[in-house]
Design a protein that fits this description.
Strand content: 5-15%
Largest sheet: 4 strands, antiparallel
Number of helices: 14
Distance between the termini: 51 Å
Strand order of the largest sheet: 4-5-6-7
Order of helices and strands: HEHHEEHHEEEEEEHEHEHHHHHHH
Shape: flat
Radius of gyration: 28 Å
Number of strands: 11
InterPro entries: PUB-like_dom_sf
Length: 438
């Protein structure tokens, strides 16, 4: 029941949203609709209620029409609710535990724009909704016919940079019909589409190794392959490694719409080209060195990625920092901790030195600071918390780029605040944690 209704709902909404100016998609022949539903099931009444919810009205000729101005936001919300009930969405959320993005930033006419995004696996389409202009864009990534087979669809995502995730990449490659599926050590399930008619077993194994290498690079900064061993359900021998995947798996039921299981063991490290050598400068043994001393109450601007620190002072005190951590955004956690420990001035730029106490209280209200807040309600306003802009600049620093962008914004912030801990780790659990991670 749910599958048939979902397909019918998606078909109606997909046509209207994709072709909002075409009158024929706003007219539904009631007899044809009833004949289709009666053949498969007798839930016509439920379908009629949903059509009314979409904005259709039954006229005297017993057919359905949507003659009023199309309410794109309403239809989009209806469309999303049905999209989120697709089998692939359920699989991604509850099996692989991988989040599916609901917003993307894409270039349009030379400018980057934010869109709400929905993945219509039924029609192999990516639907984009511009909230400002109330317009729908569609990206057709395959044949929209359900009965067709797809093998060569590849989607590449650019980085979406925000406060919470500075180097996260999402991929959505489940539009193809033939998949290789594997599980990582953390029990996360991954799928990769392959074309069995043009790819050999060896090429498939090499392709998966390349995917794993990119994954290790973006997560850990490790991009140099040490070894990779692929153990499919069949032995990878010289006499069959050049055989097409089609010849190997064509005997499987429901081929080529199948999933095959491969076990892959791999290891990657950070390549030498991403390492930076720092040589200590040996000062001459003279007492009259021409050195400029800076008072301790003045903050200096320095690049923390070149900061040479005493590793002994970063020893983790496990017995004092194991506390309950409930907030979601790491940068919010860190900023909340800094303000709680009376270091708000490290997050802002003061233009006036008078009446600091009153100024700090006003700033706390503007950013929604609550000392007892555990729900991440702190507002990361970069016009007030000017340190956010400094963190972005350091994130895009050439040295960080050469390192492969291994640090998040909160890691860089923790390095900047290194001197704040003063070995009082029980007051700085988040700063201590992110500093050790960095």
């Amino acid at each position: 029941k749910s599958k048939i209704l979902r397909r019918t709902y998606l078909h109606i909404l997909w046509n209207i949203l994709k072709y909002p100016k075409h009158i024929k998609y706003r007219q539904i022949n009631n007899q044809a609709l009833c004949n289709k539903l009666i053949v498969e099931m007798s839930y016509v009444r439920q379908m009629e209620m949903m059509l009314q919810h979409f904005g259709f009205k039954k006229e005297n000729d017993d057919n359905w029409y949507c003659q009023y101005d199309i309410q794109i936001p309403h239809l989009w919300n209806c469309y999303k609710k049905i999209i989120y009930n697709q089998i692939m969405y359920m699989f991604m959320l509850y099996k692989t535990r991988n989040p599916i993005p609901n917003k993307v930033c894409m270039p349009s006419n030379g400018k980057w724009k934010d869109y709400e995004v929905a993945f219509d696996y039924e029609h192999r389409t990516i639907m984009l909704f511009d909230e400002n202009k109330l317009k729908i864009k569609s990206l057709q990534v395959g044949n929209p016919k359900i009965s067709s087979l797809e093998f060569n669809i590849h989607i590449q995502w650019q980085n979406y940079i925000d406060f919470a995730n500075t180097h996260t990449k999402w991929g959505c490659l489940e539009f193809n019909s033939f998949h290789v599926i594997w599980k990582t050590l953390d029990n996360a399930i991954h799928k990769e589409p392959l074309n069995p008619y043009s790819m050999t077993l060896r090429q498939g194994a090499d392709h998966i190794a390349g995917i794993l290498q990119m994954r290790a690079h973006f997560i850990f900064g490790a991009d140099e392959l040490i070894y990779v061993n692929c153990r499919p359900a069949i032995p990878l021998k010289k006499n069959n490694e050049h055989a097409l995947l089609h010849d190997i798996y064509k005997h499987l039921p429901q081929y080529p719409t199948v999933q095959v299981h491969w076990e892959i063991d791999e290891c990657f490290v950070v390549s030498y080209k991403h390492t930076i050598s720092i040589e200590r400068s040996h000062l001459p043994e003279k007492t009259d060195l021409d050195v400029e001393f800076i008072p301790s109450d003045q903050k200096t601007n320095f690049n923390p990625l070149l900061y040479e620190r005493d590793l002994q002072k970063l020893k983790v005190m496990q017995d004092t920092i194991h506390i309950k951590m409930t907030r979601n955004n790491p940068l919010q956690k860190l900023f909340h901790e800094v303000i709680k420990n009376d270091y708000l001035y490290d997050l802002i730029t003061l233009q006036y030195q008078k009446d600091k106490k009153k100024l700090y209280e006003n700033i706390k209200k503007q950013i929604n600071y609550n000392k007892k807040d555990e729900n991440g309600g702190l507002i990361l306003n970069d016009k007030i918390l000017t340190i956010v802009n400094e963190l972005k600049i350091l994130y895009h620093d050439d040295i960080h780029k050469k390192m492969g962008y291994p640090l998040q914004l909160w890691h860089i912030c923790a390095i900047l605040f290194y001197d704040q801990i003063k070995f009082k780790h029980h007051n700085w659990p988040y700063l201590d944690r992110y500093l050790c991670d960095a």
